[in-house]
Amino acid sequence: MITRCRVWPCLFLLTWSVAAAQEGSIDELIPMDEMDEGTASQLQWILDHPYDLNQVTPGQLGFIPGVSSVDAARIVRYRNHHGPFRTVSELDAVEGLTDGTAETLRPFVIVPERSDTRMKAFSADLRARAVRDMQTRRGFAEGAYLGSPEKLNLRVLAEEAGGFAGGMLMEKDAGEPESLSFVTGHLSYHDPGNRSRIVAGDYRIETGQGLVLWNGSGRRGSDPAVSPFRKARGIVPHRSADETGFFRGIAAETQFGGGSFSLLGFASRRFPAGTADSAGKVLTVDETGLYRTQAEREKRGIFCEDIVGVGIRFVPDAPFSLGFASYRSAFLHRETGKGETRIVAGLSGGFRSDEYELLWEIAGTADGAAAVVIGTEVVPAQTVSLVMSYRGYQPSFLNDHAGGFGTRSDSRNEEGMHLGILLRPARGIRLSLGFEQVRFPESTGSAVVATSGIDFVGQLALVLTRDSDMEVRFQTGKREENGTLADLVGRDVRLLADERYQRARFTLTHLAMKGVRFRSRVELVGIPGTPVKSAESGMLVYQDCRFRSNFGLNVDARVIFFHTDSFRSRIYAFENDVRGSFSVPPLFGKGMRWYLLLQYEPAPGFRIAVRYAETWKEGVTELGSGWGTIKGDLDNDLTIQVDLSL
Predict the structure, then answer these.
(1) What is the C-alpha to C-alpha distance for residues 535 and 526, in angstroms, rounded to an integer?
(2) What per-residue confidence (pLDDT) applies to 67?
(3) Three-state SS at 264
(4) Is 604 helix (H, G, I), strand (E, B) or coil?
(5) Farthest-apart Cα atoms in the chain, separation
(6) Among the four 138, 290, 434, 622, which has the fewest Cβ within 10 Å?
(7) pLDDT-wise least confident of 133-147, 295-309, 514-528
(8) Which segments of 569-624 are extended strands (E)?
């Protein structure tokens, strides 16, 4: 351990030479803990291609964390009443905006001017990335993995000020035999007034509250007062390396009636991976996107899914809205010719005033299963906001393209209530409180009977000085877990026991000088014992350093020490990574992890990034599981990426 830590004093001394901060990365603006990859990718795209403040829609504004539906509506209403924004600073004149909303929005919006380099007649972004594990995994050592150990990613995106855009992304995961096994691309057009859009190729669709169509990002976030409501954006071109969450075909959307009506239609054909029974019924749909072994490759493309759908939305000048969405999906097993058809339809709507917004959606399938979500977001003052919602998803509600708010990703077999309150009693003080109660009516995974749980989170953020702030977070709750216990004669008896948990986190951030930022975190987790499971505890401590130079060199570094009893008491922490990549590894056992990210921009629009990460665990002979097992106690990898913007 001592030998491994010798590099850090040298690293600290080396990086003290840098001076001036540079913006441009999404994690510099928004806390990324518990943020999903799709959301992070979409937010980075918006940051690199800011919305036109005079064209942006309420749904686009609401997608940005920290901007409520009420705030988004106030901004658009101000624009309609006072005419186009002349500068971004005019956001300060919007009456009733929640404290801090204007500051949160500034990096994501722009009022175009001839001299503004971010609004060019034509722009193109090119990216090449290579990732390599430095240790040999079991799948390569024993020949189960059919390809090379490199992970490769190539991406090209282009946009023209007249509304035309396109892109292509190609990726090969480590162990896959093809040089580039996954290819996604799109061509799109939208008119400058956002009145119509058409996309050919790969795209995502977001409607209502996600119960009918939502294969976009489902931001949950680490803030306990985060709004549980979906901010539907309609058709969104697919730009990430997610190999499952999109449609492939053509989609179009148009507005008419002075913008009061919106009509969306799409058709898609894809060949998803998964498993089926003898009758061709879908048992599982593979979402990993990994096809490294022969067994994994046998699942690839065994289905053909043809899907057509429509969405209609009515948003009059009155403060209410109403929408309808439906699709028909036909799954066909490509070998047996057998399959099944699914039909899902739903109604959604809302009501909005200056202080609150009510949102709801109810959906059903052809066989009678239903799902519903309803809630409200109240902003009675600039210093207070409150969110409340209820969701009820029947166990038989099968919808592969849903993404409603919840603890699960499939919007089924869940009933829950979410409460959140955000208080800003004084400048520099932010208090978030959240409570959630959830029940799973049908058995799931390890639970053979219905289970339930509750969760409470409190988070306090304080600005201590002009250069320092701190955050304290506490979480407690319980969930019902199944287990077995031997009776007096040695027979296994299955029990349902309450498993309680507590988590506490303390984070201190300090700007030591211009361009030099330190962040320290301590996190503790405790799980008391139950009749079927023993007590566990865990701890994580890290020191994070960020340096931004005035000559194009940026440095991010972190060293982490962790000690947990098992994977059950694991701790997650978001890590800085190269642009477009996402890293939140689970840390468990006893050991240390560190990483170093260097990004150099020798010329405007040209960026080179190198990231090295290493995890070491004490007292183990192997890491990982299955074909991904590594012999020894060290897991390390190297990433190299080049970005070019024209």
Answers:
(1) 8
(2) 78
(3) strand
(4) coil
(5) 84
(6) 622
(7) 295-309
(8) 571-572, 586-587, 590-603, 606-617, 622-623
SS3 2: helix
The H or E element containing residue 60 is helix 58-62
DSSP letter at 444? Answer: B
Count of residues in the chain: 646
Type of residue numbered 525: V
Highest average pLDDT, of 86-100, 142-156, 485-499, comes from 142-156
- Domains in the chain (CATH in brackets) are 437-534 (2.40.160)
User: What is the band of 546 on the pLDDT scale with cuts at 50, 70, 90?
Assistant: very high
Report residue 66 CA to chain centroid gap.
Answer: 15
* Distance separating alpha carbons of residues 178 and 176, to the nearest angstrom: 6
Amino acid identity at 360: W
pLDDT in tens, 415-441: 999 999 988 888 889 899 999 999 988
Q: CA-based Rg of the chain, rounded to a whole angstrom?
A: 25
Which residue from 357, 351, 398 is spatially nearest to 379, judged by alpha carbons? 357
From the CB of residue 284, how many other CB atoms can be counted at a distance below 10 Å? 10
- Tell me the three state secondary structure of residue 44: helix
- Contact by Cβ (8 Å): 602, 633: no
Secondary structure of residue 131 in the 3-state scheme: strand
DSSP string, 331-367: EEETTT--EEEEEEEEEEEEEE-SSEEEEEEEEEETT
Distances (CA, A) of 383 to 364, 386, 428, 456, 470: 39, 11, 12, 22, 20
Q: Which of 32-41, 45-54, 84-93, 352-361 has the lowest mean pLDDT?
A: 32-41
What is the percent of the chain with per-residue pLDDT over 70, rounded to a whole number? 85
Token pair listed for 436: 């959630």
**pTM (predicted TM-score):** 0.83
User: What pLDDT is recorded for position 494?
Assistant: 64
Q: Does residue 3 or residue 586 have the better pLDDT?
A: 586
- 524: exposed, middle or buried (C-beta count within 10 Å: 0-12, 13-18, 19+)? middle
> Alpha carbon of 185 to those of 85, 215, 239: distances in Å?
34, 16, 8
Q: Which amino acid is at 551?
A: F
pLDDT in tens, 47-106: 777 888 888 877 778 778 777 777 787 888 888 888 888 888 888 888 777 667 777 788
DSSP characters over 73-111 = HHHHHHHHHH-S-SSGGGGGGSTTPPTTHHHHHGGGEE-
Q: State the pLDDT at residue 219.
A: 47
Distance CA 548, CA 554 (A): 5
| CA dist., res. 246 & res. 488, Å (int) | 54
361 forms bridges with which residues in the sheet?
348, 373
**What is the reported pLDDT for 180?**
78
pLDDT tens digit sequence for 361-374:
999 999 999 999 99
The 3-class SS string of 275-339 reads EECCCCCEEEECCCCCCCCHHHHHCCCCEEEEEEEEEEEECCCCCEEEEEEEEEEEEEECCCCCE
3-state helix, strand, coil in the chain (%, to 5): 10, 50, 40
